[in-house]
Inverse folding.
């Protein structure tokens, strides 16, 4: 085994510098919603140390800390999401895994999770991790990839017929990672209610960007992501859940030491005691919360949609550019096919990397490196000047390569 | 449901301030090892945003990111721990849970995890979470709480006789949460090797504070905690593991969408794709790593032990004070019985809170609030001046209440 050389270690690790924020406009599709607010930055610096949030932990439970006001925050967040309870988790993927695990204990014979065909890979992995089976609800395919709620009903009946059991859970991706499509949960929530099947909304890309009310949409569980869409340093997820499932999710420890007789009845077994969000993740989420509440109000949501649609309108008629996903955009995550760029990449000395190079020269980063066939970006939270600069950059590049 | 009032939210959450670090000496038992290094602070501010570490992710896997140098870091950390592989996890508790889950897939009939009777509650919860049974190895009891390795052998044979199966896993707590006892893994590692039972060292309190070499001690798995003992913002754990168990831990996804045919063969199912440590947790751990390597060298370790033993020597002869756990201290987490304080608390207007009050008046915080019967503290990383001030504070309080 190699020996460690401390000089080399210092060289490699002691000056980790990220130039992104100050010098560039970052349109990385999964980063726009996670950029910290000034309040979160302040909290981050104050609470940077490991267990900082636990200074005044009196009950051995992070969700019961009153100073800083975690208890209040979880209640306020539940109100914000229109659900009964909120528990922090390691990440939205972990929220999904925990729900499936809890429901499997409740309904061990139900082995199928019905998901939409736009689901994030972590939805699949949460299913696999619980030794369950995924059954996909199809979409309308190119170019809009629309989910029809009646297909949910068909698939539920298929599962019933094939397995003799109801699905364990129905999952809908509120806004998907690939096309940024907004999927209204209302009618699917009604179907789930009629069939008495638990309904989980994966709101990792949406909660914190778009408004959502679980109760009004018959949503039993909601998975959220602080680092993706709630301006938190993270990683931190949230699991919102209706009181109907309280005892399934908040399962207290029952194990007892055979020699010591130690037991831990106030520890939540589901999250191994306290979810791993002590310190920076939770405190930054709390500090950003007032901004989150404000930015999900109609006026701001409409303004952000306008920005996304503005860029699209500037570029959509170029030959070799086609917008994928539902239009007009509601959520600003946008996917475009860029056949014109792919054509250029064939003979460009930098191959597909030229796309990233050209935008970077214009002060814009966040494109997937090396990819020229398609582009995913997100205009969320950019100023109008930045949005216009981004659209102009497209047009400049089109011009440079004689595409217009 | 209540309505959210934005003014109130701003009031409650927009100014989260922690006074601890600048104004007080913090002797909180689980916080000393997690205090950030200056390099980690710089990295924290640079990489505060949600997915900041993923700017240059080319392969969709956090453990394969080369800029910042995650790949190098994981290799260097494996070298540091004397193991073959290192994967970040949400926290040390999650490392333990993952190992038990992986081994259960390998040996589904083995249902017993043998643990020492000083184990942290999360060891029990990881067992419970995997529907396994804990079997405790006794200790010598008050005042030293010593674990004898021959008892491990006895318990292993008991499990074999009772269940017809070997234990699934043996867990040793390297340094325990309660007495700060250092338990040498060497002889237990040998026993595990002889019986061919996987051996996990819970090094949440030790790795990053004391040196440890897994290979030399026949340790198959090591669970570490960045926020507890490696000067990381966190939460972040590490799971170190020998190559013998590589395929059990790094289990790639095999699920496939029935409609979309989507599959994710490069995603690690065990950690749901990427462990939730993107951004601040991992970058601060990386930035502190050179310091961690340095501070676990003999000279510094000896100096830190000296500080802990200095305080003990100053106070141990006071009537009504007794030191619990093995002496002299190797790890500076210290537990003392403070019967003299408990006696005073009976008639003190502030009850048990007077202990915390008295220390706080002297610029020292981190005591469990309201507790007067015992005290847990940690002198790790205090300057000698601070150590002496802490010991003097004890003596001043003893004097004030006529205990000396």
């Amino acid at each position: 085994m190699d020996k460690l050389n401390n000089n080399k270690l210092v060289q490699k690790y002691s000056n980790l510098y990220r130039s992104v924020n100050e010098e560039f406009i970052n349109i990385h599709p999964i980063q726009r919603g996670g950029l910290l607010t000034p309040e979160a930055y302040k909290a981050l610096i104050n609470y940077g140390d490991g267990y900082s949030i636990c200074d005044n932990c009196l009950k051995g439970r992070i969700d019961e800390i009153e100073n800083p006001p975690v208890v209040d925050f979880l209640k306020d967040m539940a109100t914000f999401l229109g659900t009964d309870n909120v528990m922090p988790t390691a990440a939205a993927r972990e929220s999904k895994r925990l729900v499936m695990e809890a429901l499997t204990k409740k309904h061990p014979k139900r082995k199928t999770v019905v998901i939409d065909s736009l689901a994030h890979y972590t939805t699949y992995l949460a299913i696999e991790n619980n030794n369950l089976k995924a059954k996909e609800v199809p979409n309308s395919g190119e170019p809009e990839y629309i989910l029809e709620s009646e297909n949910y009903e068909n698939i539920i009946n298929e599962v019933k017929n094939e397995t003799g059991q109801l699905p364990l859970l129905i999952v809908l991706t509120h806004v998907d990672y690939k096309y940024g499509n907004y999927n209204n949960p209302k009618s699917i929530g009604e179907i789930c209610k009629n069939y008495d099947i638990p309904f989980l909304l994966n709101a990792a890309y949406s909660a914190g960007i778009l408004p959502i009310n679980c109760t009004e949409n018959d949503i039993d569980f909601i998975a959220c992501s602080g680092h993706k869409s709630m301006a938190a340093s993270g990683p931190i997820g949230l699991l919102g859940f209706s009181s109907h499932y309280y005892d399934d999710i908040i399962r207290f420890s029952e194990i007892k030491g055979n020699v010591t007789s130690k037991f831990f009845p106030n520890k939540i077994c589901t999250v191994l005691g306290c979810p791993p969000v002590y310190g920076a993740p939770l405190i930054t989420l709390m500090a950003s919360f007032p901004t989150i509440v404000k930015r999900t109000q109609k006026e701001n949501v409409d303004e952000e949609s306008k920005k996304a649609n503005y860029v699209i309108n500037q570029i959509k008629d170029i030959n070799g550019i086609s917008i994928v996903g539902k239009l007009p955009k509601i959520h600003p995550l946008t996917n475009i096919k860029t056949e014109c760029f792919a054509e250029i990449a064939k003979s460009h000395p930098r191959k597909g990397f030229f796309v990233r190079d050209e935008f970077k020269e214009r002060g814009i980063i966040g494109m997937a490196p090396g990819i020229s066939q398609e582009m995913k970006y997100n205009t969320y939270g950019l100023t109008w000047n930045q949005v216009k600069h981004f659209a102009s950059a497209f047009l400049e590049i089109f011009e440079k390569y004689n595409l217009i």
Observations:
- The radius of gyration of chain A is 23 Å.
- Residues 40 and 284 of chain A are 4 Å apart (CA to CA).
- Chain A is about 40% helix and 15% strand.
- Chain A touches chain B through 109 residues (CB under 8 Å).
